[in-house]
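It would be a great kindness if you could assist me with a short task in structural biology. The full record is reproduced below for your convenience:
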Amino acid sequence: MRASGFTKIIKKLLKKGVVYIGQSAGACVAGSSIEPLKLMDIPEAVKLDSYGGLKLIDFVFIPHHKNPKYRKAIVNIEKNYG
């Protein structure tokens, strides 16, 4: 998102009234950080310079909260990040 310039473009578009809709990872990046999500994923698969989110919302969004497949990871996130 940073490399493509999306992080700058989306903020300009939001000021113009464009609605941002994200699902799963798209919702996660709207938050303040994606760092806790590394416990749900394989962070080594992609080399990130930053775990900072777009900060469109002032909290960390955790997807799939009720999906049993991710329950162990979500409990681990809650334990480590509150």
User: Anything to note?
Assistant: The helical segments are 6-15, 25-28, 71-81. The two ends are 27 Å apart (CA to CA). The chain has three helices and no strands.
